[in-house]
Amino acid sequence: MVGKHFHRLRTHPHRWPRMTAAIVLIVGGIFGWLPVLGFWMLPLGVILLSVDSHWVRRRRRRVEVGWGRSWLRYRLAGWWRGSRLRRYCQQLLGGRTF
């Protein structure tokens, strides 16, 4: 139910409903320890804000890429040491060793 409304808001032709909802979600996420609000609101607000703001989009993308690379390093450092997937991921990351 929330996903359908969130998608409709992300694709809304006007900017002001997205910006208003994004700011409300971010402020609600900051007060996530309160019973009605939650910390889940913060990433949704950032995603909505990144639709209209280039600065936020760049920062969000850097965080996503960094988390993805950290996850790959974590996974590849463990039980995938000698696998073909490890070599493939090294090629994707520019030949870096883990």
From the helix content, strand content and strand pairing, which structural class follows? mainly alpha
| Approximate helicity band | over 70%
Compute the CA-based radius of gyration: 18 Å
Gross morphology is: elongated
**Tally of contiguous helical segments:** 5
Q: List the uncertain runs.
A: none
**How far apart are the first and last residues' alpha carbons, in Å?**
41 Å
Let me know the number of strands.
Answer: 0
Average pLDDT reading: 79
Question: What is the ordering of alpha helices and beta strands?
Answer: HHHHH
What proportion strand? under 5%
Largest sheet: none
Describe this structure in words.
The protein has 98 residues and is mainly alpha-helical. The chain has a domain at 1-52. 71% of the residues lie in helices and 0% in strands. The protein has 5 helices and no strands. Helix 2 runs antiparallel to helix 3 (41-52) and helix 3 (41-52) crosses helix 4. The longest helix has 24 residues, at 54-77. The model has no long low-confidence stretch (mean pLDDT 79).
